[in-house]
Amino acid sequence: MDIPLQQFAYFEGAFVPSDEAKVSIATHALQYGTGAFAGIRGYLDVSDETVNIFRLPDHTRRLMNSAKIIRAELDLDAEGVAGVVQELVSRNNPRSNVYIRPFIYKAGLELTPKLKGIRSDLAIYMMAFGDYFAMDVPLRVMVSSWTRISDNIIPSRGKVTGGYINSSLAKDQAEEAGYDDALLLNTDGKISEGSGANLFIVRNGSLITSPINSDILEGITRRSVLMFARDAGVPVEEREIDRSEMFVADEAFFCGTGAQVAVIGSVDGRPIGSGERGPITEQIQRTFFQCVRGEDPTYGHLLTRVPVRPA
Ligand code: PMP
Question: 309: CA distance to ligand 1 center in Å?
Fold first, then answer.
């Protein structure tokens, strides 16, 4: 089912009605997956009449890094793209939480699968967005038989369109086997991440996450969780995670723009800890939601506030 887009999109340098933002079927990015994208949440703060965009400058910086990996150049820099995002949010005047998708793509029509010299462009669309995962039921996760793409195949560090075939294969396998999501191992057999979220586990009171050279996306929520934990005095470790550590972990959760902070209750049918949300997960989840709702002044600097008008 198609998800309705908000009224306006940014396309070929202008704000246009979303249904007019169309590309040729020969577009290089469509044929070869040569695009780089960002996924950003805006939380409607009803009392304030603003949309709080979570870590916008971090998202546009990572987008530019992903674009660099695929040699996609724009006239705009990261600040310029952030400015267009704010303008688009303002024009759409959303009355719900939203998901914003800036996309830098190879817009040329060349037939050759290569990167250099193919014209790039920026498109941005947005949609109303609720929870990606159930927030009240712990997730059932399986370790996928699909291996995470490694840096020397398609860099996971970049949020690159073609790389999401790997996530899609793992997600389908998990859902068809009756699970909510997959955990992927990298080519070294270590845990990398979920199909669209980074992983944290808790062992003996420490919060542990795979390092950025474990073939993960350098997640912005992951970085935020590390900050929330350090600020709260919870010990953190960025180190490789073995598959069997999932079986002996006290707690586990996914984090990401879509996932937010989502409790993992079991892996391959084995409960993690009690199988319910543990105390450290609860603390991180609380801090995260207070932050994005604009309720915690300590983390106000993580939000870009765009004024919106009441209906
Ligand atoms: N890993 C993958 C593969 C993802 O698609 C995402 C979602 N962007 C994440 C991790 C989480 O990253 P972030 O917190 O920046 O959204």
Answer: 30
